[in-house]
Amino acid sequence: MLDLLVRGGTVVTPGQAGQFDIAVRGEKIAAVALPGAITEAARQTLDATGKVVVPGGVEPHAHLASFIGTQAEKRSYTIGPEDDTRGMAFGGTTTHIDFCYVRPGMDFWKTLEERAARWKGQSHIDYSFHIVLTGAHPFEVFENIPEAIRRGFPSFKVFTLDVLPRNPERPTAQLDFGRIQIVMEKAAANGGIVVVHAEDHDLVQTMYERVAKEGRMEGWNLPVVHNKTSELLSFRRTIQLAGRTGAAVYFVHTSAREGVEAVSEARSKGQAVYAETLHHYVTFDAEDYKKPKGYIYHTYPSLKHKEDREALWNGLLHGDISTVGTDEYPTTLEVKLRGNTVADVTGGNLGAEARVGITYTEGVVKRGMSLQRFAEVTSTNAARILGLYPRKGAIAPGSDADITVIDPSVHKKLTKEDFHLSDYSPWEGWEVQGWPVTTVLRGKVIVDKGRLLGSLTDGQLMPRKIDPAVLKAPVC
User: Fold this and answer.
1) Angle at the Cα of 110 (from 104 to 116), degrees rounded to 5?
2) Which of 51, 48, 56, 17 lies closest to 380, judged by CA?
3) Does residue 111 register a pLDDT over 90?
4) By the 8 A CB rule, do 321 and 290 touch?
5) Which residues pair with 276 in a beta bridge?
6) Which of 145, 260, 272, 335 could form a disulfide with 331 if both were Cys (CB 3.0 to 4.6 A apart)?
């Protein structure tokens, strides 16, 4: 007997979108077949008639239970997985990748073990971690990279800058390019990928000094500090270094036209370069900072301009941008708004719950994005690039039964009551058409019609291994 049968929906498989039924046995998809072809009885049936059925969302970029660097003296942290992953589950996301920061002086393996322990039994959905290497690490630390890849952690994040002004209360984020070269060499030789927050350190830090001297410290000047030229310089420098070392690169939160163009050029030459943007960047821009409570829209790098939104959408629709992430950095409204200058506005987003639904409305409904492409940018491509595919990111026999059902008939203006995390959302008042209504994690229905049916013990740590083809050329 089957454990679950999903029938009647428009199903997005790796090859096509069409009318199919999905048979689930245990935690895996057993079959995908034409309507009526699956005759075996099932313990539970989901009727998806009139709905769109896609692979469970894969969130490639979240910072839960993370130290908040702005106003560092307050020693505060973002909301943890026990709360944030509830929102992700309601929003159709079934796997997320967070970050494990290894700073100078920290024990590499102990730090990773402690991060994993923080999540165990505290996540509604499956999870993994990028390993973040910051500061002036001794060279011996980088010798851990091959073993980390073997243990299922093949992605290593680096910052090319200190995002915030220098502060003795705040640990440095920047890894110098000499050490980035070492990370790239180790990753390239052992099946890993380098995840890069790319902005130019000198330019950004000088701009912090310059706006202070000029008396332009209001937070709406953040695009002046974290500017388009910074993204241009750092993306191109990183791509050149990756080309020299043979490393594959995944640029997080691409925010500007200049970043899209740099990635497009590298990919056209066959270089394994991938870009993520945020649904945040493609719906808001720098003018939104000037609205009441406008800093709820801020993340790093800053919001840019309308021309950049258009370039990002063009990349999502036509292939130069591979994924939609969130840079999830969840806080209360009070924490989010406690700063109002370029030096202390709290960065990051509260957007993981809205990611799948907003991308459907803005991409599929408004801009004609195909259902196949929608599934790619919200699930499949992140799974492929970061080593979860085909276990995750696919509705196919043998894959985990991670399934999201979207109801395209939902047409409403979002309110705070539509969200299940914190006391605000940047998406309050946003008009949507189509919204996730059912989420299945490894064969278990964890959300259905506004009810949470899953538990904190449902999520599991997912080992990852990247397909060598992903590391050699741009495959998605």
Assistant:
1) 115
2) 56
3) yes
4) no
5) 323
6) 335
Would the pTM count as exceeding 0.90? yes
Q: Which fold has domain 57-393+464-472?
A: TIM Barrel (3.20.20)
179 vs 177: CA distance, rounded Å: 5
Give the C-alpha separation, 403 to 399, whole Å.
Answer: 10
Q: What's the pLDDT score for residue 142?
A: 98
Q: For residue 349, what pLDDT is reported?
A: 84
Which pLDDT does position 447 carry in this prediction?
A: 98
Tell me: pLDDT of 73 over 80: no
CA atoms of 47 and 290, how far apart (whole Å): 45
240/236 Cα distance (integer angstroms): 6
Amino acid identity for residue 88 in this structure: M
What is the pLDDT at residue 197?
Answer: 98
> What is the residue whose two structure tokens read 């009810």?
451
Q: Are 52 and 417 in contact (CB under 8 A)?
A: no
Mean pLDDT of 135-149: 97
